[in-house]
Amino acid sequence: xxxLRSMEKIRMILDGVRDGxxxxxxxxxxxxxxSKLIEVTMTEISPDDFTGIEIETYPREEASDQSLLDRLxxxxxxxTLTVIGPANQIETLHKDDQLISALVSRK
Amino acid sequence: MGLLTNLKDSxxxxxxxxxxxxDPKRIGIYGPPNAGKTTLANRIARDWTGDAIGPxxxxxxxxxxxxxxxxxxxxxxGQSVTIDIVDTPGVATKVDYxxxxxHDIEKDDAIRRSREATEGVAExxxxxxxxxxxxxxxxxxxxxxxxxxxTMLIGIIESRDLPVLIFANKIDLDQAxxxxxxxxxxxxxxxxxxxxxxxxxxxxxxxxxxxxx
Lengths: 107, 213
Ligand SMILES: Nc1nc2c(ncn2[C@@H]2O[C@H](COP(=O)(O)OP(=O)(O)OP(=O)(O)O)[C@@H](O)[C@H]2O)c(=O)[nH]1
Ligand SMILES: [Mg+2]
Prior knowledge:
The complex is a heterodimer. By secondary structure, chain A is α+β, with helices and mostly antiparallel strands. Chain A has five helices and three strands; from the N terminus they run αβαβαβαα. Chain A has one domain. Chain A has helices at about 1-20, 30-45, 70, 85-95, 95-105; strands at about 25, 55-60, 80-85. Chain A is globular, with a radius of gyration of 14 Å. Chain B is an alpha/beta fold. Chain B has a single domain, classed as Rossmann fold. Chain B is built from seven helices and six strands; from the N terminus they run αβαββααβαβαβα. The interface of A and B includes residues 30, 31, 42, 45 and 87 of A. The structure holds guanosine-5'-triphosphate and magnesium ion. Magnesium ion (MG) binds next to helix 2 of chain B.
């Protein structure tokens, strides 16, 4: 059940990204989901079509480094925003901090 | 005669096992492309078994299939730790075959390499979830450790409760910044080394024995 839900989430992210969108997740991804996201992304890369993803997380508050405990408690999810986009677009994006905050606040 | 030595061999194996009380731990060498994972794996394998694991190269994604060396006996302070080392392809979230073209690789070959690389990374990620008992995370200490891939991978490793050592590699280079690596992952032990030059390998083996015994 859990596993299925996270595969659906990953499918949704990758479909969005492959349509050229930037996907913003308020809930973030669990480590397990991140690892599956990398795995599935790798299987979908194909020459001249899809070169992969760019992924960034932004702390929502000025939250200091998360402790292991926070992670275990899943507390991190409310404190970060995860931004995922097609490999070559977000690279230029994240150099421009203002643009990202515009993007984030629009959400 | 062969039978007898075989038998002897397996008897001593069995006693080794009894003493070690467990099968060899499978230690995955993970990290971003070009960090020096294969150089390290080769050095460990050469130091303790006499042969190498695979080719090293300045071209990223040189390792595109995980390679393993089983039963590497590392001796420390009169004790012996047996590990299987798995050299994995450098993890990335994107692979563009065009980047291989800059390394004088023909287009067909570049496309093949990128396909192999993506398959290898997918496999390495899968193993990290299922099949690894400990991780050596190798970083090139001349580059910025605060990357999304590093953060994600360390997070994945932590969430699986795997013992992990961070290896700050390439300390022979002037631009190496060991503190920056240590500061990036303060909750883990960072060991500086040069896999290429063999610098600080004593500490490397001490820590391997300590963490993965
Ligand atoms: N100066 C220096 N160079 C190193 C060191 N370790 C590795 N290198 C060089 O870095 C490059 C990459 O080394 P590899 O061992 O192939 O790196 P890798 O992490 O296995 O790379 P992938 O398989 O592509 O993920 C090669 O040119 C190595 O010679 C080191 O300690 N010092
Ligand atoms: Mg390699």
